[in-house]
Design goal:
100 residues; mainly alpha; 4 helices
Length: 100
Amino acid sequence: MRFVITFLLVGLPEELIYRGALQNLIEKRTGEKRAALVIAAVIFGAAHLNNPPAPNYTYALLGTLAGVAYGWVWMRTRKITAAALTHTLVNWVWVWLLGG
């Protein structure tokens, strides 16, 4: 049940914002898929700076790397659900298996 809640409250909403809206918009405006991927990933990472102890540059860097992975999944599949599922799996492993 926690996996489903994480998907619905974290993975899906964040991927709708960062991949569905931001990465997609940048890609359409610039025509540059890789640039859109990197820009969206950096913004995604920056959004995680507020994790304790704030500013958390390590977590932001990890968020940026994760954002590249989620963005790549979206870019390859063009499915928000695929990126959201990947995001949820990473969060689930991080929190529940690694104690992050």
